[in-house]
Amino acid sequence: MDRRKFIKSVGVAGTVGTAAMAAPAIAKGREKLTMVTAWGRGLAGVFDAAVHFADSVNAMSDGTLEIDVKANGELVSGLSAVFDSVTSGQADMYHAADYYYVGQHPAFAYFTAVPFGMTPNELHNWYYHQDGHKFHLELGEEFGLHSFLCGNTGPQAGGWFRKEIKSAADFNGLKFRMPGLGGKALGKLGASVQTLPGSEVYQALASGAIDGTEWIGPWADEKAGFQEITKFYYTSGFHEPGAGLAVGINKDRFNGLSKAHQKMIEIAAGEANLWNLHQYLANNSEALTRLQAAGVKTLEFPDDVWDAFGKASIEVLDSNMEDPLFKKIRESVEKSMKASAAWDRLSSGVYGAQRSRVLG
């Protein structure tokens, strides 16, 4: 069955009301695009990326192309409704982490992050100078989307826990929030994995509905307030070494725009991608210092836990290899990642170690 036709036929689940979804605005050469998002209004970093992108488009177009940003819950509610509203044509575009939509196709994970996957530099090498964007568009064809990377959280933390993790067995029965294929890997360790929107995570952790959560990294996690609930913080995770965010635009709507407006969207997405990555990186270290001063205990997973993460992650990736597109994308990613890492290890890796040794 054609997934695009199916989505259009069933409509949008979880919407606030289709009456609230305005038809595309086109008047006297001016365009208005409604962008729904996976984020609560003001959610640190992720919502910032959506607003920064929209502001850039609005400025470049001198008012001829306006992007109206809607937080999650304002026009549609829930993660799946964000995707469905755009593929069905009831909204023009979304801003989200594409791995929220692995239920639609597992290859969406590669445009956010997969366990033991790419760092931000490796992702950008692949996306902008190899096959990455081509594959993003090919995947979008199936759903009527035209997509661009539009944000990156940088390396994500392993997460917040109510108690220390001393072995892989400690994940058995643990109620933990982790989306994407990383969450499926944790499920293989016996965890009860949940995917929650960012705006719901604090309350779920505070109430005991979940035992732990990953979110992003020190700056965003501090803003979310998780240190008020638990003090065990694992600073390196296996699941998202450089998590990309994306804009997905209804393809028919995108194709109906002028070439100039299309290019403005592309440029603004790329600029927001860089801006957002360094927003996180510029703020994380100082935030970590504040968290530690507030009594947060920063930890690393033991090697045997990392080994368990690796085994489970490979099983998850291997389980999707019957899908031809997933297979092509995985092979492309791993070839690119290996090549990028080879030079990075011999250049920046050596330099970083020597700088620390010389300067302390």
Secondary structure category: alpha/beta
CATH superfamily of the domain at 14-154 and 241-281, called what?
Bacterial extracellular solute-binding protein, family 7
The whole-angstrom Rg is 20 Å
Shape: globular
CATH level 1 class label of the domain at 14-154 and 241-281:
Alpha Beta
N-to-C terminal Cα separation, in Å?
Answer: 60 Å
Number of helices: 12
The gist of it:
The chain has 360 residues and is α/β, with parallel strands linked by helices. Helix content is 47%, strand content 15%.
Task: Furnish the topology, listing elements before pairings.
Elements: H1 3-10, E1 25-27, E2 30-37, H2 46-60, E3 65-70, H3 79-87, E4 93-96, H4 120-129, H5 132-141, E5 145-152, E6 159-161, E7 175-177, H6 180-188, E8 192-194, H7 198-207, E9 212-213, H8 218-224, E10 232-234, E11 244-250, H9 251-255, H10 259-293, E12 297-299, H11 303-318, H12 324-359
Parallel strand pairs: 2-3, 2-4, 7-8, 7-9, 10-12
Antiparallel strand pairs: 1-2, 4-11, 5-11, 6-9, 6-10
Helix pairs in contact: 2-10, 4-12, 6-11, 8-10
Keywords for this entry:
single chain; 360 residues; alpha/beta; D-Maltodextrin-Binding Protein, domain 2; six-stranded mixed beta sheet; 15% strand
